[in-house]
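for the writeup, i need someone to sanity check this before i put it in the appendix. the sequnce is what the collaborator sent (i think, or maybe the updated version? ugh). structure was predicted straight from it, no edits. if anything looks off just tell me and ill rerun, i have time this weekend
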Amino acid sequence: MHVPMAPGRLPLLGHTLRMLRQRYRFTAVLRKSGDIVRVDLGTMRTYFLTNPQLVHEMLVKKGGSFRKGALFDKFQPVFGNGLATSNGTFHRRQRRMVRPAFHTERIALYARAMSRAAADLTATWRPGQVRVLEEDTQALAVTIVGEALFSTGIGERAVEEVRRSIFTVLKQGMVRALSPSFVEKLPLRGNREFDAAVGRLRSIVLDVVRGWREEGVDRGDLLSTLLLAQDSDTGAGMSDEQVHDEVMTLLVGGIETTALALAWTFHELARHPEVEKRVHAEVDEVLGGRAPTFADTGNLVYLNRVVDEVLRMYPVWFLMRRTLAPVELGGVTLPEGAEVIFSPHALHHDPASFEQPHRFDPDRWSPERAASIPPGAFIPFGAGSRGCVGNLFARTEIVITAATIASRWRLVPVAGEPVRVRFTSAAYPSRMLMTAVPRS
């Protein structure tokens, strides 16, 4: 199946989506087939990278030779021309303008809202109450991102609409992205729900943007930063449409990853009591009973290792890029317009990079052990010029909210209710039922 210095070929015919969801077998076969494997997804010819160093070369060293691939084209109705889907000069311009929203000084301010939101959520819990944890963490992520983005009265209406619509967009958007183009034109319930949710979000976000323009006051939120941003070369700001696209990118990118990572964190703590004890001891020592701040995140060393391990074990399933011209990778020349797939999930579970990759082991992120992990093997937020611009915000949110909850509560799995991974765009739990137990 594999010829040295040339792509292997693995044809996938027929029910592509169903077969791809058999993720472990699929990616294991690919890894055995070579560093670059040709995969025919119906009529689409793609090249699957299984080697982390080649992924690093593509994302970092040769990032300018690639644009976002077919998967992101399908998300154009959601993101418009935001950072997730834009390319070339326009993408670089937008990235420069968005980056100030995530400077450490701003993150420190957002951290207060993160801690407060987590405390408000857990204040509604009762001892012995069974919680559907992923629903709690999703609601928490919406609150945090919504408050960081919008701080006006109309912004509160926007947050309510985000709560109503965003998970329909995430779920149905991924189904649409992995389906043939004609499917999105069919009168299916999922299509109607997706289109309606995107339309509602678009309307409320543009209302907020126009309202801000009329007031013209910097309220210290992400939206203010976007609206005040100016291109360093031309001095021009963003149009309402551009701001809308970046807000949608931040909403979709800022809610799903953090919500799921937080849920899986407490799932793994419950499965590993010795890890949970170490987290509790560290949280108690660092915080001393007070609310965490941004300054505390660097001192929560072991909790950061737990978060890294969760991000390793439960990343997105796969991502795509498209070549802008013929590109050489690993001795193979990929033609212009080639669709290239890589799987963070497969890379994060590669035994060549991680000893016992299916074992939850936060200590693999100790400095001496982490130093041996090759570039490209751990990419929870991407890498290179297309890496997530909000990665510090996301990491801070996960650590702050986990510390806030762990300082007050333990979460215990409900017996007889096993949790399984369901992949859509990311690693969703099947249903995570956990009992809230106050810490003495």
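The chain has a mean pLDDT of 87. The domain at 51-438 is CATH 1.10.630.10 (Cytochrome p450).
thx in advance!!
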